[in-house]
Design goal:
The complex is a heterodimer of chains A (178) and B (373).
Chain A: H1 3-34, E1 36-41, E2 55-57, E3 64-65, H2 67-70, E4 81-86, E5 92-97, E6 107-115, E7 119-122, E8 127-129, H3 135-141, E9 147-153, E10 160-167, E11 170-172
Chain B: H1 3-16, H2 22-34, H3 41-63, H4 70-93, H5 97-121, H6 128-145, H7 149-170, H8 176-190, H9 198-215, H10 219-240, H11 247-276, H12 284-308, H13 311-331, H14 336-370
Helix pairs in contact in B: 1-2, 3-5, 3-13, 3-14, 4-5, 5-6, 5-7, 6-7, 7-8, 7-9, 8-9, 9-10, 9-11, 10-11, 11-12, 11-13, 12-13, 12-14
Classes of the chains: A alpha+beta (178), B mainly alpha (373).
């Protein structure tokens, strides 16, 4: 292979890889900067976790959306993109399939994951990485009034990011933009 | 049977019927003996070394990760994969494509780790299977930029990883996967990487079998389904390429396919609890035996490929080795010391193979000469 072609290949590959990482970080910055803050209560988690100690598994009241919110005759397949409108208390108050709603109230984008007591929805905020060995202590607080999660919800896309953890009403582990 | 052995058999036959003189035959034999093999032990060891060093570096950084500032971490990651790609370009430009492809593969592995580590340090959970899809795209771009069938093979495996992960996440069928694999097969054909065309076929069948078995939620059925699907795929792969090739080449393709099936079954068997979300399916000793066997099978595939000069078997062995290493890394997160010990043992095993491959090759060639057909 000629030198110029090899050099071009190197540049293209590095640019592509850096672009992907930049896109990941940039989208997060946008959501944290422009997102609407919603504080969510947590629920107890299934103690079986794949990894140990280095992240907390989180569940929320909005992780299960009841049939009364979705609508009796709405059919939702696994893996579908859904939008859940949340009220000030962080509970689901509206449900939309595939297309984001036009709404002043924040709505969160998630992926449906089967039916249980209601429709299970994942929003991409179900894990929070912490320093190794500190995850278990935080996980023990889930499902109590002591631990709440502050998330930023992008007003246009509904994509969410964890912004901070609230322990006993005090904001801890606040995420910096970069 | 190696290329040199085949040529010598033909030369003996041609000399016997007078098509070439015995002097020419002897001159050609001397030239063949002096010719360096296409795949050298050093190149094979270099590739495996790259894979191990990559994982060892990741393990080391992971152990000290939390004390490094975020920006420094990001710079470290970008520098690491950029250095691997620059090394790849430099080696390829210097006429060492095999070493260059190995370095490019190292870059792809480091990039995959970078996506996960960036997601971790910025708390981006998002859609986890999407990570594998983005990684696949990076491997494809790298394969085309460096004209690397090795990275293309990695892309195919990553696509299969994405499909499996996605189907576990949505508990249903992901129709894009077969389409993606067929697309990759077409690309392989278009680029002249024909040998790789059988692998997408294989994976389609294996993934389909896993889905079918997975529907019935029987773990034994999962592995058995993969085995049956793999055997069918071996036949498909051979028939798809039955275009007048000599039998020995087809036998080696079948051996490569059989290795993939064996690897997949072993992999599913001991990583199964990950797929089924059921802990303690295997006890610690059974897990270690499965892991050691899977690693040994992968290294043997590389060794056989080197000994018999079969490049695609070597490449598949590398990829299998890397996949198993990644899986074991994730399985032992939280016990970094054990992970380091694993990489140390794997490294020692490779040194033994690297030292033993050259005499084995010489022995096999000598034996083939002594027993003419």
């Amino acid at each position: 292979m000629k030198t110029w072609r090899a050099a071009l290949g190197v540049l293209v590959v590095i640019a592509f890889n850096v672009g992907i990482l930049g896109w990941m970080i940039g989208e997060r910055v946008l959501i944290l900067r422009d997102g609407i803050e919603v504080t969510l209560e947590t629920e107890p988690v299934d103690p079986r976790s794949l990894f140990r100690g280095d992240f907390v598994i989180l569940r929320y009241p909005i992780s299960t959306v009841s049939r009364s919110v979705i609508g009796i005759d709405v059919d939702v397949d696994d893996g579908e993109t859904v939008y859940v409108k949340v009220d000030a208390e962080g509970t689901p108050s509206g449900f939309f399939l595939e297309t984001p709603p036009v709404s002043d109230a924040p709505f969160m984008r998630g992926m449906s994951g089967g039916w249980g007591a209601g429709l299970r929805v994942k929003y991409g905020i179900e894990q929070y990485f912490v320093e190794e060995g500190t995850g278990r202590a935080l996980e023990d607080l889930t499902g109590t009034d002591r631990l709440k999660v502050v998330v930023a919800v992008h007003p246009a896309s509904g994509k969410t990011m964890i912004k901070a953890l609230e322990i006993d009403g005090e904001r801890r582990l606040v995420e910096p933009l970069l | 049977m190696s290329y040199a052995t085949r040529v010598m058999r033909d030369l003996d036959r041609w000399a016997a019927v007078g098509l070439v003189s015995f002097d020419d035959r002897d001159a050609l034999e001397t030239d063949l003996k002096n010719q360096k093999p296409r795949i050298t032990v050093a190149a094979a060891a270099f590739t495996l070394g790259i894979i191990l060093v990559g994982f060892a570096a990741i393990t080391f950084v992971a152990a000290n990760w939390s004390v490094i500032p975020r920006v420094a971490r990001l710079v470290t990651l970008v520098s690491a994969f950029s250095a691997a790609y620059i090394l790849a370009g430099w080696l390829i430009a210097r006429g060492k494509p095999w070493f260059g492809q190995a370095a490019a593969l190292g870059g792809v592995i480091i990039f995959g780790a970078s996506i996960n580590l960036v997601a971790q340090m910025y708390n981006i959970s998002g859609d986890p299977p999407m990570v594998a899809l983005v990684w696949t795209a990076a491997a494809i771009v790298s394969a085309f930029a460096f004209r690397s069938p090795m990275n293309f093979g990695a892309a195919i495996l990553l696509a299969a990883l994405w499909g499996g992960w996605r189907m576990v996440a949505i508990e249903g069928m992901e129709w894009t996967l077969p389409l993606l694999l067929v697309g990759l097969a077409v690309l392989a054909r278009f680029k002249g990487w024909l040998g790789w065309a059988s692998i997408p076929l294989l994976l389609i069948m294996i993934v389909w079998s896993v889905i079918v078995a997975g529907i019935h939620e029987e773990r034994g059925g999962l592995v058995f389904g993969a085995l049956i699907g793999g055997v069918v795929a071996v036949l498909c792969g051979i028939l798809a390429q039955n275009d007048g090739m000599k039998l020995d080449r087809r036998v080696w393709r079948a051996a490569t396919a059989a290795f993939i099936v064996a690897f997949t079954c072993l992999f599913l068997a001991h990583i199964l609890e990950f797929i089924a979300y059921e802990p303690d399916f295997l006890g610690p000793s059974a897990f270690l035996i499965f892991a050691a066997t899977t690693i040994a099978v992968s290294v043997l595939a590389v060794a056989a490929g080197v000994a018999y000069d079969v490049p695609h078997l070597v490449w598949v062995g590398y990829v299998a080795f890397a996949v198993e290493a990644v899986a074991l890394y994730f399985k032992t997160v939280g016990t970094l010391l054990e992970t380091s010990a694993f990489f140390l043992l794997a490294g020692l095993l490779i040194i033994v193979i690297a030292v033993g491959a050259a005499p084995l090759r010489r022995f096999l060639i000598k034996r083939a000469k002594e027993v003419p057909s």
